[in-house]
UniProtKB/TrEMBL annotation:
It comes from Collimonas arenae. Residues 6-74 form the HTH gntR-type domain. GO terms for molecular function: DNA binding; DNA-binding transcription factor activity; L-aspartate:2-oxoglutarate aminotransferase activity; pyridoxal phosphate binding. SMART domains: HTH_GNTR. Its EC number is 2.6.1.1. Keywords: Aminotransferase, DNA-binding, Pyridoxal phosphate, Transcription, Transcription regulation, Transferase. In the C-terminal section; belongs to the class-I pyridoxal-phosphate-dependent aminotransferase family. InterPro entries: Aminotransferase_I/II_large, HTH_trans_reg/aminotransferase, PyrdxlP-dep_Trfase, PyrdxlP-dep_Trfase_major, PyrdxlP-dep_Trfase_small, Tscrpt_reg_HTH_GntR, WH-like_DNA-bd_sf, WH_DNA-bd_sf. This is Transcriptional regulator. The keyword Cell inner membrane does not apply.
């Protein structure tokens, strides 16, 4: 329906939607190419592209690289079911524990690439969301142009072109930093490891969320430290008051958190809680390692704030990467280590000498050319749509008593299954049928999440993924009989 407020691209998108509803365009039909539609309807190419992107974000059509846009086949006339309720707040015991999760995680990650398994357990977003071809073109152009690409050409802190783009991005999202604040790393994993090594030693206790992303636990395990899990709410994040109580009774060397779109819970920590956490760290002289890898994947209208923005003493060591927002193939990350910068740069040199020059330059060239924000807007719309779809179908296929999170961003769902379910048993049974999931055991030092799983919703919705969810539901029903 045409209204005075609708723009040209919205009107054109509405015409296509009506054609689908009337059966003129059917599931699987290919839309006119952008150029053809522009000529047929007297619209600019930009207007047509925006209309197609709007239809794609609403789930009505999908794009196939090199082929064009097609009417989606899955949801032409199907109403989505209502999602189940959310899990409750975690209540871990306030005791530190040795960490031993690497064996489980390694086995799970290996299984994702075996037997063409359905990647519901993958720790990375769908690679097809990323502009891999364009970045590869910059990569090739740099190689053809010649110039230095050796290990010694980009000693810490990293390539100046990339550092400038990282600083510029932070300025655009509200965090004032200097090029002198940045150390480039081999992904966020190295950044987290270097920062933890800079602020704590073997035997120290590190506070983490419960559940927490297993990369945090890996870093603690690797350095011979202990973890203490802090109660965490699926909507509000780490309970700062509970952490304060823990710190009054035992020493905590550092805190590792993921305040925005945490993996696996997906929450965005409220502003007051972020400020209170930073103030607590300053009061006890406790460094805070902030994992910001999913900050760009928000579903709201504004970029989330970071703990680093409240840091007046250099106690927050911010870590991030391009692996979740641009490309997971190049493993390029960075850290803003505050007062610990000199130590982190030294450790970077001692650990890996430098970060590969070519991927740094290729990503810097992509960012300098523009288009990153447009890419991110499309990724966010797609992820939010796929989150809604998977949430709804978990509600349809999984048994009564299942509860799932409502992420504010990111690409994973945390699912609480009925208490009788052993998620490791479900993991093994699913893997035997070519389906991967991430069992709850990976996200804690204890067995507190025995009946939980994490699912990745970033992949394009296909009959195979729908059937995988249906089959998981059947396995769960059999386990409850």
């Amino acid at each position: 329906m045409k209204t005075a407020r609708q723009s040209l691209y919205q009107r054109f998108a509405e015409q296509i939607k009506t054609s689908v509803q009337n059966g003129v365009l059917r599931p699987g039909d290919r839309l006119s190419s952008v150029r053809q539609a522009s000529q047929q309807h007297g619209l600019s190419i930009t207007t047509v592209v925006r209309a197609y992107e709007l239809l794609e974000s609403s789930g009505l059509v999908e794009s196939h690289p090199q082929s064009g846009y097609f009417v989606r086949a899955q949801f032409a006339a199907t109403a989505l079911p209502v999602s189940p309720a959310e899990p409750g707040r975690s209540m871990p015991l306030p005791v530190s524990a040795e960490v031993d999760v690497s064996r489980h995680v390694l086995a799970t990650l290996k299984s994702i690439h075996q037997y063409d398994a359905i990647p519901l357990g993958s720790p990375y977003p769908d690679p097809s969301l990323f502009p891999a071809r364009r970045i590869s073109q910059y990569n090739g152009a740099i190689l053809r142009s010649g110039g230095p690409l050796g290990v010694l050409d980009d000693l810490p802190p990293g390539h100046p072109d990339l550092i400038r783009q990282i600083v510029r991005r932070h300025l655009e999202t509200g965090l004032v930093v200097s090029p002198d604040d940045v150390v480039v790393t081999v992904g966020a994993t190295e950044a987290i490891n270097l920062c933890l090594q800079a602020v704590a030693k073997a035997g120290d206790t590190i506070a983490v969320e419960s559940p927490t992303f297993y990369a945090m636990l890996h870093a603690i395990e690797r350095l011979g430290m202990r973890a203490i899990e802090v109660p965490t709410d699926p909507r509000l994040g780490m309970d700062v008051a509970a952490l304060s109580t823990i710190m009054q009774s035992q020493p905590v060397a550092a805190c590792m958190v993921m305040p925005n779109f945490q993996n696996p819970l997906g929450f965005e920590m409220p502003e007051d809680s972020k400020r209170q956490l930073v103030e607590l760290g300053a009061r006890y002289n406790m460094p805070i390692i902030e994992n910001g890898v999913c900050n760009e994947l928000y579903f709201g209208t504004a970029h989330p704030s970071v703990l680093k923005a409240y840091d007046k003493r250099g106690m927050v060591l911010y870590c991030s990467s391009f692996s979740k927002s641009l490309t997971s193939a190049y493993r390029i990350g960075w850290t803003l280590p505050g007062r610990y910068r000199a130590q982190v740069e030294k450790l970077k040199f001692l650990n890996t000498l430098s970060t590969s020059t070519l991927p740094q330059r290729a990503i810097a060239a992509y960012l300098m050319a523009g288009g990153y924000d447009r890419h991110l807007r499309r990724v966010r719309r797609t992820l939010q749509q796929r989150c809604d779809i998977m949430s709804a179908f978990v509600g349809r296929f999984f048994p009564a008593g299942t509860r799932i999170t409502r992420p504010g961003g990111g690409y994973v769902l945390w699912i609480e299954l009925p208490p009788a379910i052993d998620s490791m048993a479900l993991y093994r049974q699913a893997l035997a049928e070519g389906i991967t999931i991430a069992p709850g055991r990976l996200f804690s030092t204890s067995d507190a999440y025995r009946s939980f799983i994490r699912l990745n919703y970033s992949y394009s919705w296909t009959p195979h993924i729908e059937q995988a969810l249906r089959r998981l539901g059947e396995m769960l029903a059999a386990m409850l009989d």
